[in-house]
């Protein structure tokens, strides 16, 4: 198509992306402005089509734990491609890599007597967990026990069912999501949700009372599962009060409600332990993993379930003659081979231990931003940090600058060679876990330059 011939509804400019719909982007913007197009990677850096290098402080949706040029993961994919590029794992057939990966993941997960079902994406891992909960409860003669509790602001996926977990009313309404089995509770975000004068303990008491009330109102025998990320990144890196998860778990146990632990972001060392449940101190019934599970080099996910749940499911499948669930690419051989090599690397290099070793250096740089005039709060754990910007300031708000300060920060940071992700007023910093201390310094030096540039614009507007 020649320039200016970009079809009906076009802009007259050919950006080369008129037919592409990009998620979490403004569709019109994608059509009118060429997005960042990445053609290469080198450690924690990515390289765009114009040869510009960016330090990726987002690890691309918190995925690329080993960065963008790990030869071992590439070689593992290549070996599997040559040996057996694909076979579906279903109908009493599978491949060796899938068998071995299930063994290894069952052994290393905090789930008791674990059994593993694979998927392709994090959304699938969570959706399958919910499906399995229902399948089990049908077997147990509890067809009504299928309601799901999640926390507002959380993100558990993009399918019709998972999109209704967490999120916001605007999101639920805009896609007309089926919400009849969804129950929503507050995020354990003391900084943003605590009441004036409330202590953190009193805040936690209030959240537990809310959870109990939601269960009582729904009818405890109709609630099947509670799903949470150990740390909600979508809600701005919410680090819960210290007793929160232990107390949530106690309430769930009392009502026989399953605890689904969404470790899609937090798994594989991000928090300094293999899984966030270990860092935050709780014992889930089901654990969902994806993203860093293959270093993100190939789509694969896992739903890891407790032995008691498995036995009910096995009995149900026995009664029916088969477990009527599968996915063509659930446990793709190449993904499984890459995930096995990822596990080898994680164990050989003690990736969680490395995160713990580098965390003080990372935290020092996050915490140093706390006194910045534009910063309202900072939060950090392991190799993850959040810098929440102030949202008040009359003049700057009127000029629309403070409202969009975090977005502006991301744009200016990108102009300076740094990719960050923002969620609401919060800048999220979660680079590949292999980042060196020198690169951590480079990251925060650039971030500070961008933050000062935003502050200048805010001051000029205010
Ligand atoms: C915590 C969490 N759960 C689930 C998902 C969904 O994973 P996917 O995008 O692979 O479907 C995401 C994706 O960002 C996530 O952050």
Please tag this protein with its features:
462 residues; alpha/beta; Aspartate Aminotransferase, domain 1; Aspartate Aminotransferase, domain 2; seven-stranded mixed sheet; four-stranded mixed sheet; 17 helices; 15 strands; disordered N terminus; binds pyridoxal-5'-phosphate
Distance between the termini: 46 Å
Query: Can you identify the CATH class of the largest domain?
Result: Alpha Beta
So how many helices? 17
Number of strands: 15
Contiguous uncertain segments of 5+ residues: 1-9
**What form results from the Cα inertia axes?**
globular
Q: What amount of the residues lies in strands?
A: 5-15%
| Corresponding CATH architecture of the largest domain | 3-Layer(aba) Sandwich
Helix content: 40-55%
What is the CATH superfamily of the largest domain? Type I PLP-dependent aspartate aminotransferase-like (Major domain)
Largest sheet: 7 strands, mixed
Any idea what the radius of gyration is? 23 Å
Written description of the protein model:
- The chain is an alpha/beta fold.
- It folds into two domains: 36-69 and 353-461, Aspartate Aminotransferase, domain 1; 72-349, Type I PLP-dependent aspartate aminotransferase-like (Major domain) (Aspartate Aminotransferase, domain 2).
- It has 17 helices and 15 strands.
- The strands form three sheets. The protein has a seven-stranded mixed sheet, with helices on both faces. The protein has a four-stranded mixed sheet with strand order 1-2-3-13. Strands 11-12-15-14 form a four-stranded antiparallel sheet, covered by helices on one side.
- The N and C termini lie far apart (46 Å).
- The structure holds pyridoxal-5'-phosphate.
């Amino acid at each position: 198509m020649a320039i200016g011939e970009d079809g009906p509804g076009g802009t007259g400019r050919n950006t080369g992306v008129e037919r592409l719909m990009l998620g979490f982007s403004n569709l019109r913007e994608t059509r009118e402005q060429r997005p960042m197009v990445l053609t290469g990677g080198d450690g924690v850096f990515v390289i765009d089509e114009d040869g510009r290098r960016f330090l990726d402080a987002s690890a691309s949706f918190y995925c690329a734990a080993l960065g963008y040029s790990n030869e071992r993961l590439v070689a593992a994919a290549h070996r599997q491609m040559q040996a057996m590029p694909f076979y579906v794992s279903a109908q009493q057939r599978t491949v060796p890599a899938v068998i071995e990966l299930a063994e290894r993941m069952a052994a290393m997960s905090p789930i008791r007597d674990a059994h593993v079902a694979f998927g392709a994406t994090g959304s699938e891992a969570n959706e399958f967990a919910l499906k399995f909960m229902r399948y089990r409860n049908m077997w147990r003669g509890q067809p009504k026990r299928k309601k799901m509790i999640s926390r507002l602001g959380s993100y558990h996926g993009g399918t019709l069912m998972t999109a209704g977990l967490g999120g916001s009313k605007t999101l639920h309404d805009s896609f007309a999501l089926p919400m009849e089995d969804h129950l929503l509770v507050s995020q354990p975000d003391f900084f943003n949700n605590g009441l004036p004068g409330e202590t953190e303990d009193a805040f936690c008491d209030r959240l537990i009372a809310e959870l109990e009330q939601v269960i009582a109102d729904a009818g405890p025998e109709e609630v099947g599962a509670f799903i949470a990320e150990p740390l909600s990144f979508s809600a701005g890196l919410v680090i819960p009060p210290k007793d929160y998860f232990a107390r949530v778990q106690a309430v769930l146990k009392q009502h026989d409600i399953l605890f689904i632990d969404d470790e899609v972001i937090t798994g594989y060392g991000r928090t300094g332990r293999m899984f966030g449940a270990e860092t935050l101190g709780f014992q889930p019934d089901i654990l969902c993993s994806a993203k860093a599970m293959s270093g993100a080099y190939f789509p694969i996910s896992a739903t890891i379930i407790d032995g008691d749940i498995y036995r009910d499911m096995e009995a149900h499948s026995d009664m029916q003659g088969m477990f009527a669930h599968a996915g063509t690419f659930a446990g793709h051989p190449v993904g499984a081979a890459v995930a096995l090599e990822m596990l080898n690397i994680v164990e050989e290099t003690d990736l969680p231990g490395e995160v713990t070793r580098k965390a003080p250096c990372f935290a020092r740089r996050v915490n140093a931003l706390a006194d910045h005039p534009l910063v309202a709060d900072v939060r950090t754990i392991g190799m993850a940090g959040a810098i929440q910007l102030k949202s008040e300031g009359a003049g700057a708000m009127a000029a629309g600058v403070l409202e969009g300060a975090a977005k502006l920060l991301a744009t200016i940071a990108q102009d300076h060679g740094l990719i960050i992700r923002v969620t609401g007023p919060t800048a999220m910093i979660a680079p590949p876990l292999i980042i060196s201390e020198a690169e951590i310094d480079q990251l925060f030096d650039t971030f500070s330059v961008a933050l000062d540039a935003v502050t200048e614009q805010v001051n000029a507007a205010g």
